[in-house]
Each structure stands twice: as C-alpha cells, then as structure tokens.
C-alpha cells in the first residue's frame, strides 16, 4: 500500500495576499454594478412628461389679449414666446418682451417652473407671464 502523500505548505503571507485580492475583486464588481446600473431618477426623467406640441395661453393686458406660446417635446420645454405681440403692445408695455425672455431663459436651464426669480423692474408682469406658461403646460401634461 503505497500512498503518495503530498504535503502542501502555505505561507501566511500568501494567504493574506489572496484574501486581500479577493476582497478587492468583490469591491470592484460591486462598484461597477452601481456605476452602470440604471438609476431610479434617470428612469423618472426619461418618462414622458408632456404630449409634444404647441400650447397657448392667453394673457389680458388692458383689454389686449396676448397669446403665450409654449413649444414642448415629450420631456423638454423648447420655446416660450408671444405669438401676437405687435408694435402697439410693445409701445404700451415695453417690459413684456424682455420679461418673457428672462423667464424663458430660467425655464430652459432648469426645465422647471419652480424657483423662478422675477425681474425687479417688472414683478407683476413676470407673475402674469409665469401663470400663463403654467396654464399652457397644464394643457401639455400627460393625461
């Protein structure tokens, strides 16, 4: 009966190195999983918020109706402008066009109607325009 017995000698240093590399490998796999897995917030942002199209809302200024036009795609506000702003209205209300441009820039950057700052020159006009934009976006929201 001859048995070939093999004796394996493990040095403690080799066992420690192996354990450290196994732990680092597991941490790397976990890190890569978190980095490349879809995030909940991104999936919420990619969900359609609006029905794409052009939506309008009316603002009445001293018996003159102005239409605020809001152009949206499925998740972004692309344009905000007046559609029937003629010379007589801009003469009567010179701050209308600069105010809507100021508000539109903020909305384009944040894609939200929250925390919009009003121009110190025309806070009332800013509020009226922002309400008109909100009304138009209500029409654009998914049912």
Using brief descriptors, characterize the structure shown.
143 residues; alpha+beta; 2 domains; three-stranded antiparallel β-sheet; 3 strands
Report on the architecture of this protein.
The chain is of the alpha+beta class and 143 residues long. The protein folds into two domains: 12-44; 53-140. It is 50% helix and 17% strand. The chain is built from five helices and three strands. Strands 1-2-3 form a three-stranded antiparallel beta sheet, with helices on one face. The longest helix is centred in the first third of the chain and has 25 residues, at 12-36. The chain is rod-shaped and about 110 Å long. The termini are far apart. The model has no long low-confidence stretch (mean pLDDT 86).
Describe the protein's topology.
Layout: H1 12-36, H2 40-46, E1 53-61, E2 64-72, E3 77-82, H3 87-92, H4 96-110, H5 123-140
Antiparallel strand pairs: 1-2, 2-3
